[in-house]
Amino acid sequence: MASRRDWKDIAGAGSSCFLSFLASILLFSVAQLGWEFFRSTPWRTILGGALCCLFYSFCLVGVGNLEECLGFQRIAGYAEVVICLVPSLGLAATIHPVCATTCLLFSMFSTWCFHQVAQHVYFKKTRQV
Predict the structure, then answer these.
(1) CA-to-CA distance for 113 and 61, rounded, in angstroms?
(2) Looking at the whole model, is its pTM more than 0.90?
(3) For residues 91-108, b (16+ Cβ closer than 10 Å) or e, as one string?
(4) Which of 17, 25, 55, 129 has the largest count of CB atoms under 10 Å?
(5) Is 106 helix (H, G, I), strand (E, B) or coil?
(6) pLDDT tens, position by position, 76-129
(7) From CA 63, how far away is CA 11, in angstroms rounded?
């Protein structure tokens, strides 16, 4: 039988917030330093949009954890999504316009996945046996 992990093994909101923002800064730097690489072929342009979507995802996780550290709501809403989406689209637009489009599409899918996970984790209905 597989053992379950203890809650003490899971990173707290503070360390997760720090690591998420650190990953966001790293992805921002990679996108800005490698913009010529991402513009060179159509497939790399799509890869640049996926990279900016990762930037969005890490920003969203970081903002959500920052809110939890400060004692605000636990689940990110529309304002947090917009706050994280605008810089990621701006970052993608500095690389190539197609990067911004693919970033928006990938980010919409990423937001849907975050929503599905949140529904499963936080709003799970209890079954009556």
Answers:
(1) 13
(2) no
(3) bbeebbebbbbbbbebbe
(4) 55
(5) helix
(6) 688 889 999 999 999 999 999 999 999 999 999 999 999 898 888 877 765 555
(7) 16
